[in-house]
Amino acid sequence: MASKKREVQLQSVVNSQNLWDEMLLNKGLTVIDVYQAWCGPCKAVQSLFRKLKNELNEDEILHFVVAEADNIVTLQPFRDKCEPVFLFSLNGKIIAKIQGANAPLINRKVITLIDEERKIVAGEMDRPQYVEIPLVDAMDEEYGEVQYESAAEVYNMAIIKPDAVLMRKNIEVREKIAKEGFVIEIQENLILPEEVVREFYTHIADQPDFEEFVFSMTNGLSCVLIVSQEDSEVIQEETLPKTDTEEEPGVLEEPHVRFAPVMIKKKRDSLQDYMDRQHMSDYCDVEDDAVKVSKFIDILFPDFKTMKSTNVQTTLALLHPDICEEEKDDVLNVIHNEGFTILMQRQIILSEEEARTVCKIHENEEYFDNLIGHMTSNHSYVLALRRENGVEYWKTLIGPKTIEEAYASHPQSLCVQFASGNFPTNQFYGSSSKAAAEKEIAHFFPPQSTLALIKPHVTHEKRIHRSSSR
User: Fewer Cβ neighbours under 10 Å: the N or C end of the chain?
Assistant: First the structure.
């Protein structure tokens, strides 16, 4: 009961247009969690809000609100959306919007706006002329649909057949599509339910051996991949003709034509197109229909959508040798306290190529060669970490690339807390993006082949349960 009371005190409830209009009279900054009645407010950020309120609200200029989109006319564009949305109202004007439960971004936005507001009140700076953001733009109104700042991810589902899994083709497929820029959200070896097989392969249901095919697919381990694409466009270099414009006075001659490289954007291949081009379609089948994929995800991976709604991500973290040797246990405690789940971890000695990749941002420094020598002759520690907005959160937590920069801009970062060694560099590394994390985790934690023996008396339901729990 006490817990519920604290939550009400933390975030005021706005569930009507009148209350919304009253809320806009707040002085200072109001952070608004826009939610749907069927799913409720975003609980993932409440601890952050409580921390910010305790630390920043001495002057009563920071307010937190939960607003139910279903009953507020102004919030009509956000109805029937499952991804969290946070609006920032400054003295009654909506000036910013953050899509998704991006805690580090929300934290930075609040701290920046509150700091500005205090300076304005103290007469240290003029009030910026913020432009109120439209909740519906002209194009949205014309077409009657609201487009979010961050478009919803589109997923494909790929099934690698049991015979191919036994030949370890699943490892080959994973490596190739990750290298191409696709993000593997889920990879599971499991025995497929008959209903999934029949619906996934409905296009071949009229073939005479279909029943035999269904039997083989429901009695062996298939590898199921749920795949997204981080960027639908790829930048390619093309050589286009270029004409020299300089010519000697009075001389008429054909202009000299040379070819210069030009960077252009092209639409990336779909997963199916890529499979066809790589000759993997014989043993790997793809479904790209969004409705069907969503249904399959609900059946096979019922927790996936909940995880994605809070933007749970996996990232690669690396502790440099000095940290690995002297401070590893303390760092692991920090990792746990920051809400990360450690999925995998191992101690390794980096190859020269790996060290150059990890330390690439320092390659123009005089100490680079010595740093590489240090990294390749001592143990480092690599981890696969998961938490909400994990990639960006870990990068923010470890701080910038050098100790000097960290002291100036991120004094609370791990770079400062664990500053040590003979180099002026950050002793921690993190993946730069979800796609990079996918590739790096696959590299440092390569998937192992699995041999499963299914006893004759084990039921079909038990097979699914046991294989899914691995």
Answer: N
Reading the block at residue 332, the tokens are: 């692991």
> Would you say residue 254 lies in a domain?
no
Strands (E), 206-256: 222-229, 233-243
CA 272 from centroid of its chain's CA atoms: 23
Average pLDDT over residues 426-439: 91
Q: Is residue 160 part of a domain?
A: yes
**The domain that contains 85 carries what CATH number?**
3.40.30.10
- Range with the poorest average pLDDT among 79-93, 208-222, 401-415: 79-93
Among candidates 458, 441, 453, 460, which has minimal Cα distance to 187?
A: 441
302-326 b/e with 16+ CB inside 10 Å = b?
eebeeebbbbbbbbbbbbbbbbbee
Task: Identify whether 257 is part of a domain.
Answer: no
Cα–Cα distance for residue pair 400/405, rounded to 1 Å: 6
Does residue 429 register a pLDDT over 60?
yes
pLDDT tens column, 66-117: 998 888 888 888 877 767 889 999 988 898 888 888 888 888 889 888 888 8
What is the model's pLDDT at position 308?
67
State how many domains the chain has.
3
Kindly state whether residues 162 and 294 are assigned to the same domain. yes
Helix, strand, coil fractions of the chain, as percent rounded to 5: 40, 25, 35
Residue pair 176/280 in contact (Cβ under 8 Å)? The answer is yes
Pairing of strands 182-190, 341-348: unpaired
- Domain extent for 211: 156-233+267-305+451-468
b or e along 234-271 (b: 16 or more beta carbons within 10 Å of the residue's beta carbon)?
eeeeeeeeeeeeeeeeeeeeeeeeeeeeeeeeeebbbb
Question: Is the pTM value of this prediction over 0.70?
Answer: no
